[in-house]
Amino acid sequence: MKFRRSERLIDMTHYLLERPRELVSLTFFSERYGSAKSSISEDLAIIKETFEKQGIGTLQTIPGASGGVKYISKASIKDAKDFIGELCELIASADRLLPGGYLYLTDLLGTPHIMNKVGKLLATAFADSQIDVIMTVATKGIPIAHAISEHLNVPFVIVRGDSKVTEGSTVSINYVSGSTKRIQTMVLSKRSLNEGAKVLIVDDFMKAGGTITGMMNLLDEFNATLAGIAVLVESEDAQERLVDDYVSLVKLMDVNMKNKSIKVVEGNYFYRD
Amino acid sequence: MKFRRSERLIDMTHYLLERPRELVSLTFFSERYGSAKSSISEDLAIIKETFEKQGIGTLQTIPGASGGVKYISKASIKDAKDFIGELCELIASADRLLPGGYLYLTDLLGTPHIMNKVGKLLATAFADSQIDVIMTVATKGIPIAHAISEHLNVPFVIVRGDSKVTEGSTVSINYVSGSTKRIQTMVLSKRSLNEGAKVLIVDDFMKAGGTITGMMNLLDEFNATLAGIAVLVESEDAQERLVDDYVSLVKLMDVNMKNKSIKVVEGNYFYRD
């Protein structure tokens, strides 16, 4: 079956978007469409140019016999600015206020197009890091870990508060929760993480950083190494933060229960070194 | 900024793929690219034809002044057959066997390209149903609910085993777990589900169907209605199943601990009426 250029461009766009960071050879495309490699190269040049112009990402070309092309999902600075601005507005809404000064964020975590953007931005922040696997803790970190994993095309593992029969043998550690100051347990399936894996730790909310420190301790048990930390929301009013090298999209500055106001600003996404 | 047809096709493909079931007007595209509506119509016809030919999905055209185009994510029967076949092989691997005849499936749930296919297939099964929201239960149902929600472009809500301060006011029910026969609790944030919502219930594994029945009872508390039930794996050896109208991708026929064999076949995906 012969493909016209217009058809190839549409199908290649879909094919690449579904497989971030996967090396696809020119031979594969050439056979898929019954087209000469020179035509495929021209197609890819147009796709790369359009992806970059439209803030979709870029294509990396790996030369040589075992070479090919990789799609890198990358948000532009403008798109990131716009989206984080929207997110700040969404989060600052007074009806999110819960007793105790907590914020209701669950609706955002369950909205796929918001999670897709969150995933794209946080994947962009770690575009140049070597990441083998993403780790998060149940329950609210899962959609964020899932979203980042789609853009980096790496698996994610879920740490749980208790051991389940369907997880097989597990490793568990104790940690001190930053907010409640109580000793809690974290459990991860033994077979879910390989020795030496480079791990991106992800969570929805970070205050003192107790949960994230717990996950870092868990990495030691697996002889895995920390590749980075990403959170959706960091909170300002931590007396002493246990974690200092992380990326956040938004920062909660102040929650005032009395006059029902929430102050939210950009996180450190644009200001890390 | 003027766009050439090749650039338009690439950008429109990305734009539509990111927004399943969202109505996009021809005017929007026409302004985005500085192109005549007649050119946009031609572009969309090429995209529709290619999406259908390549098993990506289809475009629905809504005529009239408030009309436009909608991308429907739809797996072809061939792709569904191939993927379910792969899934059966993956699941039948003896090293998934856990004490008590349970199966380790967590790695599949954390692999984004597998979840993307699972989501696409299950979204295809409910392509003609009106679905407002997807409901699942923590923890293992979440990646599946998330994946389907991306293809149907509707939010998902997470039922939990206990009440958390960050969920605000909640509604809780008791149910009998099919496997342990014990009374358990299910909790859902009050503000997460609107009255009258049409809900697709999703889980990773169904044996007797106790957990799913629990979620159905929870729907009643919210005056929401059931739009469908989707599971990744159903298990054969249920004495009496509490749920009979559902879609499953694979079916676990037999788990033999002695000779370490697992028998997995296609679920009812292709055989429902």
TrEMBL record, chains A, B:
Q: Does the keyword Lipoprotein apply?
A: no
Q: Which CDD domains match?
A: PRTases_typeI
Please list the GO terms describing molecular function: DNA binding
Q: Which SUPFAM superfamilies match?
A: PRTase-like (SSF53271), Winged helix' DNA-binding domain (SSF46785)
Q: Where are the transmembrane segments?
A: none
What keywords were assigned to this record? DNA-binding, Transcription, Transcription regulation
Cite the Bacterial purine repressor N-terminal domain residue spans from the record.
Answer: 4-72
Q: Name one GO biological process term.
A: negative regulation of purine nucleobase metabolic process
- Is the Transcription regulation keyword given for this protein? yes
> Residue limits of the Phosphoribosyltransferase domain?
108-254
Q: State the family named in the UniProt similarity comment for this chain.
A: Belongs to the purine/pyrimidine phosphoribosyltransferase family. PurR subfamily.
Its assembly, as annotated, is: Homodimer.
Identification of the protein by name = Pur operon repressor
